Amino acid sequence: MSLAHQHLSRRTVLKTGMVAGFGLSSVLAGVSGISAAVTSGVLIGGTRMDTLISALNNIGNPVCLAAANRLAALDPNSISFDLNLRRAGMDAGNARVLADALHETNGSSRPVLRSFSAS
């Protein structure tokens, strides 16, 4: 077998293995996420909105608490939601907490984040 063919075969195997590995980990993460959300009792349209609601509650300022209450009251059949946190006065630590929660919620199917603003 030529060197170029060996390299191509190894590359193909690695790419296939990586795709399969990432796909399997995504499926397993989705199943465990749904399981955790169902156990916690906060499952909105098959997503993990509880993480975002919890983050907003942990930030604890009036703007974030109001947003958390709106998200908690969101219709389970909603397709999308808006998260507008004007005059929230968040510091860098609060912004990081919110970013992490948004990142975790991002891969969810519904509802999806339609618009976001913060100041």
From TrEMBL:
<protein>
    <submittedName>
        <fullName>Uncharacterized protein</fullName>
    </submittedName>
</protein>
<keyword id="KW-1133">Transmembrane helix</keyword>
<keyword id="KW-0472">Membrane</keyword>
<keyword id="KW-0812">Transmembrane</keyword>
<dbReference type="InterPro" id="IPR006311">
    <property type="entry name" value="TAT_signal"/>
</dbReference>
<feature type="transmembrane region" description="Helical">
    <location>
        <begin position="20"/>
        <end position="44"/>
    </location>
</feature>
